[in-house]
């Protein structure tokens, strides 16, 4: 259990808030208060509505953290025998020519992906709500316009997600006892109605239909997460990646494991040649991740993260209630 949860048990939420309120730096004060609130919520008893989901393959690897230098880039990440390749899709541009829209990236893309997968566990056809504004707020974001606002960002990332293709490749044991390479090329969605030209708040009845192949694979390999954890980490792409990675990995460990910085960079880093920079970023965001995952056994050591066998962040009884099939041997 992370230190902040022990402090909550010793001094209570109000006691920790008083200490945090005395911090001089406004940003640090706000961050500490948010962390206390998230840690306190994580100690509560979750309900079925508190659940979110992500495909196990997308928990082990990640999307780019920032806009790629080129829209033509094929994004690749790997975790042991599992490999993720994301190929950018094409659309007809304003000039009438086919153009690539690039792969999805950043926190907005991650929030959209988790939303689609969470709702997709329950139904292949996903409703985005009665209006564009309602959907953006359901992602935990404010509704803002302009070139840097959330409306434009969500529109762009939705288009990138809808048009790109995810290639999942992993090595598994065949029935004969040898190694078998499995490759799945999948689009996440087969239908997407955007709010082109609509005013903010206008009815839109937008729905997303997951592809049959991805929906079936998601149902077999869905990893349960906590919505409050996603909400707390919504502004930090690395924090979201670490949380989903730990939620998948820790509950499957049978003994402690050293996840070296180089290996972690191949999974969630943006530049594997700068592992020292990634290590610094991980150390900075890990307290926020552990605040929303009380049972996570994680220690920062010289060469990486020491992972300990831990409970899932979600009680299994809640997952069983949704009849989600957690495969015994998900893609690795």
From TrEMBL:
Name of the protein in question: Plasmid replication protein
Species lineage: Bacteria, Pseudomonadati, Pseudomonadota, Alphaproteobacteria, Acetobacterales
InterPro entries: RepA_C (IPR006881)
């Amino acid at each position: 259990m992370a230190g902040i949860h022990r402090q909550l048990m010793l001094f209570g939420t109000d006691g920790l808030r008083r200490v945090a309120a005395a911090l001089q730096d406004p940003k640090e004060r706000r961050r500490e208060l948010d962390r206390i609130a998230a840690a306190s919520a994580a100690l509560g008893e979750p309900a079925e509505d508190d659940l979110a989901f992500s495909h196990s393959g997308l928990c082990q690897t990640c999307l780019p953290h920032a806009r790629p230098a080129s829209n033509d880039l094929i994004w690749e990440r790997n975790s042991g025998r599992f490999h993720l390749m994301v190929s950018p899709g094409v659309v007809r541009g304003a000039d009438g020519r086919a153009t690539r829209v690039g792969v999805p990236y950043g926190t907005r893309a991650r929030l959209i992906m988790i939303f689609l997968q969470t709702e997709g566990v329950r139904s292949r056809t996903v409703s985005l709500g009665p209006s564009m504004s309602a959907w953006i707020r359901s992602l935990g974001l404010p509704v803002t316009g302009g070139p840097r606002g959330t409306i434009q960002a969500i529109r762009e990332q939705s288009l990138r997600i809808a048009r790109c293709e995810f290639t999942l490749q992993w090595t598994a044991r065949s029935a004969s006892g040898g190694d078998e390479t499995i490759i799945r090329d999948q689009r996440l969605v087969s239908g997407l109605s955007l709010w082109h030209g609509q005013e903010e708040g206008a009815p839109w009845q937008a729905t997303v239909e997951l592809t049959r192949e991805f929906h079936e694979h998601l149902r077999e390999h869905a990893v349960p997460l906590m919505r409050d954890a996603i909400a707390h980490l919504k502004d930090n792409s690395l924090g979201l990646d670490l949380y989903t990675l730990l939620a998948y990995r820790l509950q499957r460990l049978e003994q402690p494991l050293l996840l070296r910085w180089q290996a972690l960079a191949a999974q969630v880093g943006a530049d594997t040649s700068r592992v020292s920079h990634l290590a610094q970023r991980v150390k900075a965001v890990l307290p926020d991740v552990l605040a929303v995952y009380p049972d996570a056994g994680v220690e920062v050591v010289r060469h990486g993260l020491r992972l300990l066998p831990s409970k899932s962040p979600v009680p299994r009884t809640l997952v069983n209630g949704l009849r989600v099939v957690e495969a015994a041997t998900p893609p690795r």
